[in-house]
Design goal:
elongated; four-stranded antiparallel sheet; 12 strands; five-stranded parallel sheet; alpha/beta; 230 residues; single chain
Length: 230
């Protein structure tokens, strides 16, 4: 099996080199990019399994790079953000980042986060042949497809995993921590607001208003559940 290919994008050469060194030491294939323009060119030239992307870069910043990447693909993206830049983290997650790591960070922690995100590419939540019929909502794991009223719904890989995790047990309430464990991986170090951001994105894709949900309901003070149509 070919090693996972990762693109590391950061204008600070020392950070880029340290991260790349640790990833290569764990058997990953690594390509480096010093700015957003180079990163997009690299992504156009070849496929990557994951992109580690610094937000604060001169010229084309990480959020703009992420927006462009999301027009092209569902490649996994981990953002590197400054500890104080809460707005950047929220914007990045809303645009489609899968995770974020705040600077300063430990290289070993980042490698652990990379492994947790990449684990999503393996069927961890349910078997490939599973299909969940939830009234107008159908989730077909084998086809990696969700439909509402017979119409396909465009979901990112992470949104599909999140929906599948809950759809496998309709009516069951999942805490944010449980969803972090099932979807993001047991060694996810991020805060639970990551779940809230992606639930909002999932609802938007499903056309499911939080105030009057058809599919995904909030259980205040606890978490979320997929409604059982029975």
């Amino acid at each position: 099996m070919a090693p996972y290919r990762i693109l590391v994008v950061d204008d600070e050469a020392n950070i880029r080199k340290i991260v790349a060194s640790y990833l290569r030491g764990d058997g990953f294939e690594v390509v480096e990019a010093a700015d957003g323009d180079v990163a997009l060119k690299e992504c156009a030239r070849r496929e990557f399994d994951l992109v580690i992307l610094d937000v604060m870069m001169p010229g084309l910043d990480g959020i703009e790079v992420l927006r462009e990447l999301r027009r092209r693909s569902d490649v996994y993206v981990i953002l590197l953000t400054a500890r104080a830049e809460e707005t950047d983290r929220v914007i990045g997650l809303s645009v489609g980042a899968d995770d974020y790591v705040t600077k300063p960070f430990g290289a070993k922690e980042l490698v652990a986060r990379v492994k947790a995100v990449l684990r999503r590419s393996r069927p961890a939540v349910s078997a490939a042949g599973d299909r969940f019929d939830l009234g107008p909502l159908v989730v077909d794991v084998g086809r990696h497809e969700a439909t509402v009223d017979g119409e396909p719904v465009r979901l990112t890989a992470l949104e599909f995993e999140l929906l599948t995790a809950m759809a496998a047990s309709p009516g069951r309430v999942f805490t944010r921590g449980q969803l972090l464990e099932r979807v993001w991986g047991w060694d996810h170090y991020g805060d639970e607001r990551v779940v809230d951001v992606h639930i909002r994105k999932l609802r938007k894709a499903l056309g499911d208003p939080a105030a009057d949900p058809r599919f995904v309901a909030t259980v205040r003070g606890v978490g979320y559940k997929v409604l059982d149509p029975r």
